[in-house]
């Protein structure tokens, strides 16, 4: 990741909306020939601090997911983004000369393709699971004076089962976005 400095502007940088005296964020991204200087009034997102289109795309997907409501549609959108990154990587691999495909770069790209496919499949599975989940239905009967002992026991058992099922449902509903987040944190090199 590129180093980011906080600076005070000595002059205006109109392309970044920075005026003389403003505090801004500065970074320089190294390229094979020269580099790219970036300035921003807001802190840089991780996706802005890399020159790799693959890494930038993956990090951007993470950032979008983090800012979302993390429901089944958001997980599915992340899966589509990751699958798209894998398809782009496959296109890059296919366009490489055969000699390079067998080298370190080719192997890295092949690994990215397979990891994107794996992560996208798992994310889609989580989205499907979340979309199919149904909240347990609370028993409607209430205790009354006319109920005999067995009816009271049955109703109490039904309420206990409902509470256990509801706790399990809520626990899984909270765990799925965390699992999706973990998958998005596994960016292949």
Sum this structure up briefly.
This protein has 189 residues and is mainly alpha-helical. 57% of the residues lie in helices and 10% in strands. It has two domains: 1-44, no CATH class; 47-189.
Topology of helices and strands:
Layout: E1 4-8, E2 23-30, E3 35-40, H1 53-67, H2 72-94, H3 98-101, H4 104-132, H5 149-184
Structural overview:
This protein is mainly alpha-helical and 189 residues long. The protein folds into 2 domains: 1-44, no CATH class; 47-189. It contains 5 helices and 3 strands; from the N terminus they run βββααααα. It has helices spanning 53-67, 72-94, 98-101, 104-132, 149-184, and strands at 4-8, 23-30, 35-40. It has a 3-stranded antiparallel sheet with strand order 1-2-3, with no helix packed on it. A hairpin with a 4-residue loop joins strand 2 and strand 3 (35-40). Helix 1 (53-67) runs antiparallel to helix 2 (72-94), helix 2 (72-94) packs antiparallel against helix 4 (104-132) and helix 4 (104-132) runs antiparallel to helix 5 (149-184). The protein starts with a strand and ends in a 5-residue tail after the last helix.
Can you give keywords for this protein?
189 residues, mainly alpha, 5 helices
Q: Which structural category do the helix and sheet elements fall into?
A: mainly alpha
Share of helical residues: 55-70%
Task: Walk across the major sheet and give the strand order.
Answer: 1-2-3
Helix count, per DSSP? 5
Supply Rg. 26 Å
Beta content: 5-15%
Total number of distinct structural domains: 2
Average residue pLDDT: 91
């Amino acid at each position: 990741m590129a180093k980011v400095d906080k600076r005070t502007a000595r002059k205006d940088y109109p392309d970044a909306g920075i005026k003389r005296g403003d505090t801004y964020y500065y970074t320089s991204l190294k390229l094979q020939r020269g580099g790219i200087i970036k300035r921003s009034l807001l802190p840089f997102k991780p996706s802005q601090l890399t020159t790799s289109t693959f890494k930038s795309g993956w990090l951007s997907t993470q950032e979008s997911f983090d800012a979302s409501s993390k429901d089944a549609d958001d997980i599915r959108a992340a899966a589509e983004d990751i699958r798209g990154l894998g398809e782009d990587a496959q296109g890059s691999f296919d366009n490489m000369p055969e000699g390079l495909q067998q080298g370190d770069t080719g192997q890295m790209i092949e690994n990215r393709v397979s990891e994107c496919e794996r992560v996208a499949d798992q994310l889609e599975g989580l989205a499907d699971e979340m979309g199919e989940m149904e909240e347990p239905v609370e028993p409607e009967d209430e205790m009354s004076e006319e109920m005999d002992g067995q009816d009271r026991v049955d109703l109490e058992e039904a309420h206990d089962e409902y509470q256990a099922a509801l706790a399990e449902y809520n626990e899984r509903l909270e765990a799925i976005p965390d699992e999706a987040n973990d998958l998005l944190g596994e960016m292949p090199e």
